[in-house]
Design brief:
It contains two helices and seven strands. By secondary structure, it is α+β, with helices and mostly antiparallel strands. The longest helix is centred in the middle third of the chain and has 18 residues.
């Protein structure tokens, strides 16, 4: 499952940018062998954040309930500045959830994606 509730905490695991109900990954161009030719981190970030919103809503939570975010990037040096700007649009400032955040660079993710989120929300 993408979400598990324990008491008043909701844990979201491994949310990536893949379009719900399909194998399409927004912002990724693959060659005929399935290797990444290019990717657009901004498109992937926005798709991931939309997927987080959908999973939260499915579980009866809202964006404002988010209290902690762990972000996995495959290329910190290249992607962090863009990701950080987009993250601020969604998470930081007045009227936004302002969760704690940890960002980690990983060598690869299980599918040809450049970003994945793990989220904790407080609900109830």
């Amino acid at each position: 499952p993408h979400a598990k509730r324990v008491g008043e905490l909701l844990f979201l695991s491994g949310i990536g940018p893949r379009k719900r109900g399909s194998k399409e990954i927004p912002g990724v161009t693959l060659d005929s062998a399935g290797n990444v030719v290019s990717y657009d981190i901004e498109t992937q970030c926005r798709a991931v954040f939309e997927n987080v919103r959908l999973v939260l809503e499915d579980a009866g939570a809202t964006w404002q309930d988010i209290i902690d975010v762990t972000v996995f990037l495959t290329n910190m040096k290249k992607d962090f500045p863009i990701y950080n700007r987009i993250y601020a649009e969604y998470f930081a400032g007045p009227g936004k959830p302002n969760p704690t955040r940890t960002t980690i660079e990983v060598g690869a993710l299980p599918t040809p994606i450049a970003i994945e989120l793990k989220v904790i929300a407080a609900v109830g």
